[in-house]
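Thread: Serine/threonine-protein kinase PDIK1L, structure

OP (GT): Posting the sequence first so everyone is looking at the same thing. Length is 372 residues per the record. Can we get the structure tokens written out before standup tomorrow? I want them in the notebook alongside the other entries.
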Amino acid sequence: MASSQMIAPSPVPPPPRQPGRLRTKETLTLKMVSSQPKYDLIREVGRGSYGVVYEAVIRKTSARVAVKKIRCHAPENVELALREFWALSSIKSQHPNVIHLEECILQKDGMVQKMSHGSNSSLYLQLVETSLKGEIAFDPRSAYYLWFVMDFCDGGDMNEYLLSRKPNRKTNTSFMLQLSSALAFLHKNQIIHRDLKPDNILISQSRLDTSDLEPTLKVADFGLSKVCSASGQNPEEPVSVNKCFLSTACGTDFYMAPEVWEGHYTAKADIFALGIIIWAMLERITFIDTETKKELLGSYVKQGTEIVPVGEALLENPKMELLIPVKKKSMNGRMKQLIKEMLAANPQDRPDAFELELRLVQIAFKDSSWET
Ligand SMILES: Nc1ncnc2c1ncn2[C@@H]1O[C@H](COP(=O)(O)OP(=O)(O)O)[C@@H](O)[C@H]1O
Ligand SMILES: [Mg+2]
């Protein structure tokens, strides 16, 4: 079965597996900056469905960065790019496990402009209009690109990193703690990621040179993310991401919670995706993506000879008992219980990101004190 990234209108029983579009009402503006090249692109390091990612250097400082280039020739691309910009630029402080956006640049033909909140720009408004209407709202002969300048992650993604090494308990524990910390930070900042999966979790190995520290994970690819706005009653009061209901069925099928398939969900969908990732990491459960033929970490349910995403199977049968762990001794009782709760069919039975972080810290602490 293919693991396809999906964005589709909802409710959708049965859900379509082809890309569609998200709709948005957020706004932002652009500022003029110099058209002098600031970055040198070195090599292509990634290519997704919507953009190309390069390793690059800042000319002035020779610092290494990653630059993601999205061509805005289709409304889908514009929408993904704007979502990524809104999420990453809404974060006021940095977190070690969340990719940091240095800047976002809009290029139109030979001109470049820095994207920033708080000012007006007709170019920016054209992009928003394109995204809202679902059709190009500017002269199609112009070439628009959005460039995202971010931290460069030199260690590939979580699939590549883990699957090229033997299973290691210390690495697994470190990755779980880093991921839960990143998710608690995102949810505290009102951001629902909606496409958590090992391909979108990148590895930075730079601090490994002399120490035996585990690598740093960075949650990346915010193209499907949603920033939940303030509650209607009191605009000053931020709404809890666990009460912010979303209706666009989107994500990648193997990591999607049952309620996402139905199109009525909250930030608990991210908890479910992380449950799939952690379960797969601890037990080395993988499947082959039929499109790319790549081996990917992800747990699933077997139905005869077919493998079915856990969320899809739970949607059909919410009472289904998940076989966790699949292998004996791959996790202790507390971990097994936590993963079961993360993958509960009812989102209200899942822990929120803050409880999850706390419980993982407790499990890690107990495990390490037991070892010594
Ligand atoms: N900051 C980065 N550093 C290094 N590689 C990156 C970085 N961002 C993305 N990549 C590479 O590019 C790929 C696609 O990027 P991603 O942001 O996931 O976009 P897409 O929406 O196309 O999936 C990633 O899987 C990764 O291999
Ligand atoms: Mg991606």
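GT: Both are above now. Quick notes for whoever picks this up: The longest strand covers residues 39-47. The chain has nine helices and 17 strands.
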